[in-house]
Amino acid sequence: MHKRHLERLQLIWGDDYMEDEEKLEKELYREARECLTLLSQRLGSQKFFFGDSPASLDALVFSRLAPLLKAKLPNGKLQQHLKSLQNLCNYCTSILSLYFPWDGGESCPLPPPA
């Protein structure tokens, strides 16, 4: 997967994409923050991105946001930005409680005996 990401960066920024790693890191964080902000604006006050029912976009977005929101990360810059977007935090919390009602740190509850 790492190779695929490097190829994408090279495609987007050309052959000199690795010349200044600090500049590259700042640009990636800037783009990620912008992406989170745009998602927040698009979600607005809706429960899901396309209204009251989840769609495949919700599954995709949640699969990226929940780990970013809940994981302990060595660098919390992006996590802090996400936490400042209250509607996205509420969105993740709502999906977790609706579809994963057990404690996220625990294993799945066993189904009742038949």
Index terms:
mainly alpha; Glutathione S-transferase Yfyf (Class Pi), Chain A, domain 2; 0% strand; elongated
Can you characterise this structure?
This protein is mainly α and 114 residues long. It has one domain: Glutathione S-transferase Yfyf (Class Pi), Chain A, domain 2, CATH 1.20.1050.10. It contains five helices and no strands. Helix 2 runs parallel beside helix 4 and helix 3 packs across helix 5. It is elongated, with a radius of gyration of 17 Å.
What is the number of E strands?
Answer: 0
Low-confidence region ranges: none
Output the CATH class name. Answer: Mainly Alpha
Helix content estimate: 55-70%
What is the string of helix and strand elements?
HHHHH
* Biggest beta sheet summary: none
Number of domains: 1
Summarize model confidence as the mean pLDDT.
85
Q: Which architecture does the CATH hierarchy give at level 2? A: Up-down Bundle
Q: What's the Cα radius of gyration?
A: 17 Å
> Which range does the strand content fall in?
under 5%
Protein name: MTX1 protein
InterPro entries: Glutathione-S-Trfase_C_sf (IPR036282), Metaxin_GST (IPR033468), Mito_Protein_Transport_Metaxin (IPR050931)
GO cellular component, one term: SAM complex
Organism: Dicaeum eximium
In short:
The chain is mainly α. The protein has a single domain, classed as Up-down Bundle (Glutathione S-transferase Yfyf (Class Pi), Chain A, domain 2).
